[in-house]
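Input (5'-nucleotidase):
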Amino acid sequence: MIVSRGAVLRAGGRQLSRVLGGARPTEHITEPSKGSAIRHKSSGPSDSGFCQFTAGIMPETVPMYPTLEKLGLLNAAHVRIKDLARVEELVSSLVSSGFSKLQVIADFDRTMTRVSYFGKLCDTCHGIMDNSSLMPAFYREEANKLLAKYYPIEIDPKMSEEEKIPYMIEWYNQIHELIIKCKVSQKSLEEMVSSSNARLRDGTRDLCKKLHEYGVPVLVFSAGMGDILEQVLRHFDVYTDNLKVVSNFFKYDEEGIVVGFEGDLIHMFNKNENAIHSSDYFDKLTGRNNVILLGDSLGDIKMAVGVPQPSNVLKIGFLNDKVEERLEAYMDGFDIVLIDDQTMDVVNSVVRLME
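Output:
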């Protein structure tokens, strides 16, 4: 989108933000010599999709959202942005501040990892265990029953977060009790991961490599199982020293058998920096008030709670299913929403601009 140099178009007080993708009528504004602008609307899409001023000759123009245009976000069919002006300002601030001011906070399952591959659902951390031949049949049966009962509650747009939390705690506690009954050994986890179909989202390895190169702290929050998550990171060779995992970790007995879980329960609605108790990690965050937050659920929006203020938090959300039902809520919560995107292309594009 472009406007004449020095002009800011508000269109009668309306902010020119739009849901991206899809044609719309083109609006032109003619500026007569006496100055009052006259609007003309064409009935179909223009070649450029731009809103432009005309006054006899084509004026010199500048982009209204230059950074978003560089990123290719203004015409991408899978991208939704509710407030273009705010996101332009956020991204521009992150880019101009550079890597030294940046930290990244990311969910893991279906954010750093793929949802599906060639039409088949990929394993999450829980799914790796659920689908492993090393687990007894009764575990898979019971785990599937719990999934069928509680997952619809997790994603129900008609329920508030406060209403969902008790059910999520019930779900996690029951799964954890099942795991303890199975007497899972620590040494079996590597085999579970290597035999699973878990895959990183395309471009995740490149993103992790670049963030490690520039020493950017990466905090991975997961309501899954931390021991399995760490095995996945090792398996794909992305578990670098700038990355910290906050999740539910197993407690083992002397023989390496799971007998419980360490610390407080992490579920999808209490993931935030207040859950971190490592002073060493917070030392790394000094002066890093710019955040790129990546998540696939509405609960992930709060992961940056606890970041020192003032801060600039760019929230990028992956909307993987039930798009029509959940799109409005995702656009309200995330700055950029990516629909059925199995890549890290948008995130990598932002990071490349910072170089």
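The two ends are 25 Å apart (CA to CA).
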